[in-house]
Amino acid sequence: MESAKEKFESQLNDIAGDQILQTAKITIKLYQVAKSEAESFWNRVESMFLLNLNQEKADLASKQEIQKMLSYKNEEGWAILSKGPVAMITGRSSTFIKVLEKFTNWKDKIGKKNFEEAFKECYSEIMKSDSHCCRLDIPFVAGKAPERMKCAECERIMEMFISYKCCREGG
Fold first, then answer.
1. Which residues form the Sieve element occlusion C-terminal domain (predicted)?
2. CA-CA distance, 10 to 101, in Å (whole number)?
3. Global confidence as pTM
4. Closest alpha carbon to 133 in 114, 161, 100
5. Which residues does 35 contact at the CB level (< 8 Å), separation at least 6?
6. C-alpha–C-alpha distance, residues 21 and 32, integer Å
7. What is residue 88's predicted lDDT score, i.e. its pLDDT?
């Protein structure tokens, strides 16, 4: 039986070779965060989150994508659709798989819209009917933790909990 990761990769490869994408000169590449790079990756995501937390001028869409990304820190199976260095959509791989499964339903929009817009439209439709649970562990930085935070996926006010973590290395 195919794992979720294998299914994701397989579907991504299938659509990457589709004639519509070839004609539109759209290239899809899969990048994975190696286990050896995971800690520094998540440290950078946390830093971006904390930097944007109290900046009123920070782009709301970027704040939400960073918040979503940080909520996936303790989960398996997440993905980012980006165009160059700009993150367009951040989500669970299970939702991305559903979008890829529906590719034949939305691929004809790629001539009228760009790939990201067509993908995001299908993604949004799926999110309307999918359930989710969003957990966000925020490292406490004196006075910087917000009192209220909206869910990056559905925009409802999140319940607030405090998480503690102990990491011990060696003997």
1. 36-167
2. 11
3. 0.79
4. 161
5. none
6. 22
7. 83
With vertex at residue 138, the alpha carbon angle to CA 64 and CA 154, rounded to the nearest 5 degrees, is 35
pLDDT band of residue 118 (cuts 50, 70, 90) is very high
Over the chain, what HEC string results?
Answer: CCCHHHHHHHHHHHHHCCHHHHHCCCCCCCCCCCHHHHHHHHHHHHHHHHHHHCCCCCCHHHHHHHHHHHHCCCCCCEEEEEECCEEEEEEEHHHHHHHHHCHHHHHHHHHCCCHHHHHHHHHHHHHHHCCCCCCCCCCCCCCCCCCCCECCCCCCECCCCCCCCCCCCCC
Q: Which single residue is written with the structure tokens 């004609």?
A: 23
pLDDT computed for residue 144 by the predictor: 63
Contact 57, 26 (CB under 8 A): no
Average pLDDT, whole number, for the chain?
83
Residue 95 has pLDDT above 70, yes or no: yes
Q: What span, in angstroms and rounded, lies between the C-alpha atoms of 153 and 164?
A: 24
* 77, 92 Cβ separation under 8 angstroms: yes
CB under 8 Å to 36, separation ≥6 — which residues? Answer: none
